[in-house]
Amino acid sequence: MKNELIIKDLFVNIDGKEIVKGVNLEVKDGEIVALMGPNGSGKSTLANIIMGNPKYQVISGKILYKDKNILDLKVDERAKLGLFLSFQYPTEVSGVSLTNFLRTAYNSLNENKISLLDFRKLLEEKMALLKIDKSFMTRYLNEGFSGGEKKRAEILQLAILNPKFAILDETDSGLDISSLKIVANGINKLKNSENSILLITHYNRVLQYIKPDRVYLIIDGKIIKEGKAELAEEIEKYGYEKFIN
What we know:
The chain is of the alpha/beta class. The chain has helices at residues 43-51, 75-81, 98-109, 116-129, 147-161, 177-190, 229-238, 241-244, and strands spanning 5-14, 17-27, 32-36, 57-65, 68-69, 83-86, 93-97, 140-141, 165-169, 196-201, 214-219, 222-227. It has a six-stranded mixed beta sheet, with helices on both faces. The chain has a four-stranded antiparallel beta sheet with strand order 2-1-4-5, with helices on one face.
């Protein structure tokens, strides 16, 4: 079964205000698709709608994944179907270690539960792949983490859960160049022909390290342009003003 995601003529309101205005977007099997736009354009909103955040009211349209309209599915049902969202601002959870959080998440999505010993082996393997120090295993989830460490922990979660469709919401936000390269390298290592990624970003700089197959530009809740990687370079060169005016 294909893991492509197709959004068709999607209109969404929040508190009676229209915020998504007829969006059409497609991420095919094995693709990396970038969604770019200025602040308040609807990028993160769209990510939350795909994942089923209940505060948004879908007025009309469809979101198809694995040939199924997922709008009627709950958040956990969408996750079990293979959808994953890496948050722009990961939450700190005191008292819950990174290891326990990831193992609980893994077991909630898989019928065959993994033992603590086997999970530790898996976790150490993925941490080595992403160049994350083993000391993180016992640290509380995101507590005291730098911005870069939080984003690397999100990519570690991606590596452990191995979703078929991942939404990465401004994973590059707040990262210095060294952290950006580490995070981007991790994403590239996890990408394969059997999964797909929707990469949400303001800037072209992350796309220098993660090459998108296509780029969508969203402004004021509307997709106003679609193109290849060159579109991101055009946005970088001229700014969003060129497309707003």
